[in-house]
Amino acid sequence: MNKYLDISPEVKAALDAGKPVVALESTIISHGMPYPKNVETALLVEQTVRENGAVPATIAVIGGRLKAGLSHEEIEHLGKAGRAVTKASRRDLPTLCARGIDGATTVTTTMIIAHMAGIKIFATGGIGGVHRGAETTMDISADLEELAQTPVMVVCAGAKSILDLGLTLEYLETHGVPVIGYGTDELPAFYTRKSGFGVDYRVDSPAELAAMFRAQRELEYKGGMLVTNPIPEEYSMDKTVIDAAIEEALRQCAAQGIKGKDTTPFLLAKVVELTGGDSLESNIKLVMNNARVAALTAAALAE
Asked: Which of 9, 198, 206, 269 stands the most exposed, by the fewest C-beta atoms within 10 Å?
């Protein structure tokens, strides 16, 4: 086992027994929502995983230790610290470990630590991708590269709708990452169920998802698999409303000169503000829905 990795007793017991485990990220706790809503949501998502037959493993860096499975106290710590916690991507892990610093894991680093721990399924809200205007800024999320090289299934509600979804799909295709629609032929766009872009394959059951991932592993592919699960219909936002909020958020982001890893937290927070909080509630519901599908898939994979 990696010398910097700590697996919680509950998660380790589940993995040793071949029971289903679902990884969960921690950037949503520190950077995605205000306190105490962030802590409430994190615990609710863990509960959703348990209710659907799997063990939750929320992942973070605490005091330079890579943690697979957090205590309630550690989740509370991240929630209260908020954006003072480093938003940790692949490039940050060595420094955090060497300096004994806390870090909230993105999709990228959650995949890395999950794979180290032997966890195969990961539920999140939405992945990063190719940002709008990337043809000049070259702003492309490390999430896409990680999906191409780390063998973890990521269950999400599509790429965040603040991104260029068409270019994100092209990038994933180039890197051989299968994009699977769970119960849909169309890529979900995070807050809304449809984007106008198709997926590679449609799957309608957790058992079929598990079979596809098992086959990918037996073929010894090095990369992962992206499952896009639409937000439930009753929580989907009006596309014109969310698109208008995103355009205004992008305008303000450019005007303030915000770049790099600060871009996504700024845009998501601004969209929450512009939608009167509606997008935050939609975000919570879609994460819970992804946790449910991930837990059912992990259970099917463990059979």
From this structure: 9
Catalytic annotation on 160? yes
> Catalytic residue among 25, 46, 74, 76, which?
25
CA angle 136, 141, 147 (to 5 degrees): 135
- Using alpha carbons, select from 103, 81, 96 the residue that is nearest to residue 25: 103
Q: Which of 67, 87, 120, 160 is catalytic?
A: 160
Q: What is the pTM of this model?
A: 0.91
CB atoms within 10 A of CB 164: 19
Q: Cβ(125)–Cβ(91) under 8 Å?
A: no
What pLDDT digit, counting tens, does each position of 109-126 carry? 999 999 999 999 999 999
Is-catalytic flag, 67?
no
Which residue blocks in 52-200 are alpha helix, DSSP H?
A: 72-81, 93-99, 107-117, 134-137, 142-149, 165-174
Instruction: Report the DSSP beta bridge partners of residue 122.
Output: 23, 154
| pLDDT tens for each residue of 202-243 | 999 999 999 999 999 999 999 999 999 999 999 998 888 877
